[in-house]
Amino acid sequence: MDNQDPKEERVEPVFRNGTITIVGILLAFSLGFITHWAANPIPWQTYHLIAVLPILVGIALQMRALAILLDVKSLKRSIHDRACRIFITGLILAACGVGLAILLDFFDISAKSALPGAS
Question: What transmembrane ranges does the database entry give (predicted)?
């Protein structure tokens, strides 16, 4: 009849839907940041990869978490929890990359404005 383990804990669909909404919104912010930063008037340098790599890996992990959560199997507690851990890891990586990007831009702008005539 039903091949589900009766002992297996399940997530309420409403809770899962809320998690999907949060993951989608924060993923959109991450994608928006990298898009906006790519259009930044400050020319990109090789050292910007220090910030770009964690952002891109973080975005990839967030996308993976969203893909897992969109599957009906994510109603199983173990799968839902795994997706949430992947998402949090991606979010932390993306946030660290954003922080590095802000610092790199700040130091680049302050170095250019500190030296008159420097370009």
Answer: 20-39, 51-72, 84-107
Amino acid identity at 106: F
CB contact at 8 A, 68 and 79: yes
Q: Which residues contact 90 (CB under 8 A, 6 or more apart)?
A: 57, 58, 59, 60, 61, 62, 63, 64, 65
pLDDT at residue 31, rounded to an integer:
94
- The Cα–Cα gap between 117 and 111 comes to 11
At 6 the three-state DSSP class reads: coil
Q: What is the pLDDT of residue 1?
A: 40
Angle at 41 between CA 36 and CA 44, to 5 degrees: 85
- Residue environment code for 80-108, b if the CB has 16+ CB neighbours within 10 A, otherwise e: beebbebbebbbebbbebbebbeebeeee
Mean pLDDT per segment of 10 residues, for the chain of length 119 residues? 67 91 96 88 84 96 97 94 97 95 82 61
